[in-house]
Amino acid sequence: MSSSLPVLVLVPGAFGTPEGFDKLLPYLAEAGIPTQPGGYPSADPEDPTTATCADDIAYLRDQVILPLLDGQQKDVVLLTHSYGGVVGGAASKGLDRQTRTAGRYKTSVIGLIYVAGNITLEGESLLQAVGGAYPPFIKLNKPSPNVALIEPHMVHLYNDCDASQAEELGKAMVPHANLAFETPPSAPGWADAGFEGRRVYVHTLDDACNPASLQQAWLEKSKVKWEVINFPSGHMPMVSKPKELAAQIAKSVGGFVSL
Length: 259
What we know:
Layout: E1 7-11, H1 25-30, E2 35-37, H2 53-71, E3 76-81, H3 84-91, H4 97-102, E4 109-115, H5 126-129, E5 138-140, E6 147-150, H6 153-156, H7 166-171, E7 176-177, H8 179-182, E8 199-204, H9 212-222, E9 227-231, H10 237-240, H11 242-258
Helix pairs in contact: 2-3
């Protein structure tokens, strides 16, 4: 692919870090796609009592996306996983090409790729979006107050990964501030007309964390059109099927560039 491709910002899901995308990186590099980590402060937070969803959104927008757009003059595609969809969705507000061009900016967020991404409406917290109660595999106040972990992680996050990876994958999980799940995000960018034809949703069909039926309900709730890719994997295809996921990402990025 061309060296003028957009930067792919890797926004992890809850309990993870951008390093969770590491198995994807060789395949993305092979396709010529540059990447940038897109972490946020509620993962392994310094102070979980103040780690809100709004702070995650502001951090991703101000510290990651805007420096690429305005500092480096690079177009961006957001690759968001799970809770990263809440953060990336709101952080992309007003950064679509249509809006940025009207403001006489030369760069923009040219596409959104959600991988099992949580879709929340303006003012709707992630906890509300999953029905108002935590699923039993989210263990609150563990390993310390005001943060949570997922247990057992192989059953819910890595159900299509080899059991021999259990120890390695367990070490990759970080405590997450539950306040981030309970506080509302601002309005999502995906809802805007400027992202028409620029929304891709990788629908993980064998997901034991965000069940496929719940993902489908979120898509319908959004009331906008997504290109839906039915993907036969668990919740973490960047780990279990990195080559196949990278091929889909490259295809989607190429589609955004050609628009």
